[in-house]
Write a structure and sequence with these properties.
Helices cover 41% and strands 12% of the residues. With 418 residues, it is of the alpha/beta class. Helix 8 links the parallel strand 5 and strand 6. Helix 12 packs across helix 13. The protein binds pyridoxal-5'-phosphate. Pyridoxal-5'-phosphate binds next to helix 5 and helix 6.
């Protein structure tokens, strides 16, 4: 056996040992894996989670018995309350949020707009700045620009290193008496950097501002404790680690202490205190319901409910432990195989500062990603030169990750060093 084959056998055995010791290994079998026979290794759980078997059944069952069976009566049977019911469930299972503060509605972009507007509109006179970082997710930066223009505010941009993310020191230096709101991603979409949310929240509060967290890349992979951290507002996606399906609705969190005082601007009938009276003039519903604007996307919440059931059963502590074990294994394989092939790790090595994915950089990674997709190995690509390895703790096995990393190494080795 060659030295390379021997080394491979060592790492393959290690992957198999990790699978054997994985308390969540059986959860993988609950996913619809056999429907994707061409997929060798799915490493984009941070962009779109795989579907559960139960989701396919539940969707079909919902159409047959709920939609077809109940028709318009479904709204009075309970659909009307799904934004809060599913929001509370999500809050309990994944956010560390007590009931009454979370709704499921809209997209992350739209909810982000609504919450940001609510926050800046409530700021005292003289607090005319929104603090945001230059490497925040594009939609957040664009909405921040739009809200600033709409309300005559200034954006104070914090410059962040794309291989890292937003730090406490950088936030401390940026906030002050003019801060209305500071908004950041908890896990940076590019590097996977995990921001120190409790400390940053406290720093923004210390300067008298509010904080709005985008949890899209942390919910369902990192443990969250929004109430304990004193977070004011938060939004996030449900189609990533929560397996809600393509375009599934987002969630918004508004801490109880701000309810009633902070008002979102899209005052539609479904956020009205009495939607069915259809009366003149808008009066917001009490509680988090006031974050809702139009008719709730009931059908699109069915898969999310399945995803939340599985996360609840697994428990977020176990999910985070597996996620860290997966990214640690990714780093071990990158160090063993890829460093000599010109690959840099563009993610935190410190597990305390690492979210759920790892970014590996080489100048030709865009083309490499295309070649991997042709082989059924599916990470994704983000500039500059970053292949994002995003294993999903509920559905990715260590062996699946190993197979993907072998393919990455082989494709890189077959190409000239850029
Ligand atoms: C994925 C993601 C979004 C996506 O927002 P949509 O409105 O669902 O398109 C927003 N913010 C962050 C940080 C994300 O990672």
């Amino acid at each position: 056996m060659t030295a390379t084959a021997q080394a491979d056998q060592h790492w393959r055995r290690r992957a198999e040992e990790l699978d054997a010791a994985d308390p969540l290994a059986a959860v993988r079998e609950e996913f619809l894996l056999d429907a994707a026979p061409d997929v060798v290794s799915y490493l984009d759980g941070n962009s779109l989670g795989r579907p559960l078997r139960a989701t396919a059944d539940r969707m079909s069952e919902f159409v047959g018995s709920q939609w077809a069976g109940r028709l318009i009566r479904g709204w009075t049977d309970g659909w009307m309350q799904w934004p809060e019911v599913v929001g509370d469930e999500l809050g309990r299972v994944a956010l560390g949020a007590a009931a009454g503060q979370t709704v499921v509605a809209d997209s992350t972009t739209v909810l982000f707009y609504k919450l940001l507007r609510a926050a800046v509109d409530a700021a005292p006179a003289g607090r005319d700045e929104i603090v945001c970082d230059t490497d925040n997710f594009p939609t957040d930066r664009y909405v921040v620009e739009g809200v600033a223009a709409e309300r005559g505010l200034t954006v104070r941009w914090v410059r962040t290193d794309p291989a890292l993310g937003i730090t406490l020191d950088a936030v401390r230096a940026a906030v002050g008496p003019r801060t209305a709101v500071a908004t950041f991603s908890h896990v940076a979409y590019r590097s996977g950097y995990l921001a120190d949310a409790p400390a940053i929240t406290a720093a923004v509060h210390g300067a008298g501002g509010l904080v709005l967290w985008d949890l899209s890349h942390s919910v369902g992979s990192v443990e969250l404790d929004l109430d304990a951290w004193g977070v004011d507002l938060a939004v996030g996606c449900t189609y990533k680690y929560l397996c809600g399906g393509p375009g599934s609705p987002a969630f918004g969190y508004l801490a109880t202490r701000h309810q009633g005082r902070l008002r979102q601007p899209v005052q539609g009938w479904m956020g009205h205190a009495e939607p069915m009276t259809m009366g003149p003039g808008y009066a917001p519903a009490s509680g988090a319901r006031a974050l809702v604007s139009g008719t709730p996307p009931i059908l699109a919440m069915v898969p999310l409910r399945c995803g939340l059931e599985v996360v609840d059963r697994a428990g977020m502590a176990a999910v985070r432990a597996k996620s860290l074990a997966l990214t640690t294994f990714t780093l071990e394989l990158a160090d063993a195989w890829l460093a000599d092939l010109g690959v840099d790790v563009a993610s935190p090595r410190d597990p305390g500062r690492r979210g759920g994915h790892v970014t590996l950089r080489r100048a030709d990674h865009r083309e490499v990603t295309d070649l991997l997709w042709e082989r059924g190995v599916i990470p994704d690509y983000r500039d500059p030169g970053g292949v994002r390895i995003g294993p999903a703790p509920l559905s990715t096995s260590f062996r699946e990750l190993y197979d993907g990393m072998v393919a990455l190494r082989d494709v890189l080795a077959s190409r000239p060093l850029p």
